[in-house]
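quick one if you have a minute, typing this from the bus. below you get a single protein, a line of residues and a line of whole numbers that encode the local backbone shape. could you go over both lines and see whether the tokens make sense for that sequence. anything you notice is useful, everything is just below.
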Amino acid sequence: MATSIRVSSHRWLKPFIELLRQGVSAEKIALTIALGIILGVTPVLGSTMLLCTLAAVVLRLNLPAIQLVNGVVYPLQFILLIPFYRLGAWMFREDASTISLGGVTALIREGVGHAVRTLWVVTMHALLAWLLLGTVALAILYAVLVPLVRQLWKSVHPSVKPLYGR
């Protein structure tokens, strides 16, 4: 009982606990979280909400839950933006020496349209790098999250078996 109280007292876990109580499978919740994380760090600024919405609709995932995860990882998108730009430049044998946070910020200050036109190729290269890494990371996250969500179920309902999954 103490484990149940301790786990369910975490504010950020409550939406996922409610999904478990509603009978959503551990696999669906794990996929929602994993996709929210991976889509949330897409190196295309302004795209994550739309991508998460599309994933939720197409895969019949919980839209508020995937958007919650997207919002939580939002700072990671900025942290990973320059590394993805540089990885994309490296993959396509482009010069990455001019890619910096200061340079991107300066471009955005000059105007978003100008920044988009200037960074178009860099962003497309970064997007391809993200697709490669994101595919692998999604599989790993999903494989790790399914048992964790099942454990969460057991801590919330120790005597009740979930409707779906194991």
